[in-house]
Amino acid sequence: MNSACLAENRHDESTQLVAIRDLMLEVADRGKWLTLDEIAGITEFGEASVSAQLRHLRKPRHGRYRVEKRRRHSGETEIGRDTGLWEYQVLRPR
Fold first, then answer.
1. For the chain: N or C, fewer Cβ within 10 A?
2. SS3 51
3. Do the bridges between strand 85-91 and strand 66-72 make them parallel or antiparallel, or are there none, so unpaired?
């Protein structure tokens, strides 16, 4: 990969990071949580990319945001286990 491609990939990643950060802070201000699928649907980034950007937000160089994670309970399956998904909230650093 040449240096122009590397720079473009870093720019794309940074743009995704900013978009996801801004969305998640806005959502958290309203007390809401989103799943990876919901974030991906709003931002049009893939779920794997969203997940990676949420991890990046925890890093010192990206602001050390608090990324909270919890189960969203959506009922039980026929065998009695919950079918919950993980949902996320991004909070400003303390």
1. C
2. helix
3. antiparallel
Domains (range + CATH), the chain: 3-91 (1.10.10)
Question: Rounded to 5 degrees, what angle do the CA atoms 30, 35, 40 make?
Answer: 100
- How confident is the model over 32-91, as pLDDT tens digits? 999 999 999 999 999 999 999 999 999 999 999 999 999 987 765 566 666 678 999 999
Query: How far apart (Å, rounded) are the C-alpha atoms in residues 8 and 31?
Result: 34
φ and ψ at residue 91, rounded to 5 degrees: -120, 150
d(CA 70, CA 43): 21
Question: What is the reported pTM?
Answer: 0.78
3-state secondary structure of 58: coil
